[in-house]
Amino acid sequence: MACVALLALSGAAGAEVTVSQSNNPTQLLGTSFASLMGVERNTVGALPQARLAALANGPAIEPRRKRAAKAAEPVAVRYDDAWLATHPQPDGDAEWQCLRTALYFEARGESLQGQFAVAEVILNRVDNPAYPKSVCAVVKQGCQFSFTCDGHSDVMRDRSAVERAGRIARIMLDGAPRALTMGATHFHTRQVNPSWSKRFPRTASIGAHLFYRQP
Question: Which of 100, 130, 153, 174 has the greatest number of CB atoms lying within 10 Å of its CB?
């Protein structure tokens, strides 16, 4: 009888520690995952080869230069006031303000081409390693531009000239082609004859200004 009781107790103890496979969370998760993988495998297998290749290679990415070229397509410039007036009222950051101010004081009495030409000179300097890398720094460098050192107050009183200079500055900063001065980095009026003008090749003559490119 004692042996029978012992066997019964041993069986009961064994029953308490037995894990039901039907309630095992790890096994259930594995079964679900295998099922999902099977569905995904069947779906992928049904795709055409061209679609599979596209998924494997990922989305086509244009080269950086090509994307930049698309983002900065040059503006076709017409050098007349009617065309200029078709552009919205301009605005911008400090670079735009510096270019507008320089155009106003250096060239507001010039023709439209003459003002665009002065803008070209300033932007050509920004691109030249020999000069500062911003419009404001180029304009304010030493006494390179006479209005910064003439001792006069830089107040822009002629509103129409301010607006004109602002539109030109905006168009040029937005990437308009520099087609007037052939890379000029210098200019002077016909009334003066600076020493560097004998050493630099002349590239253009527009209005009261002569333009030169630094060798």
Answer: 100
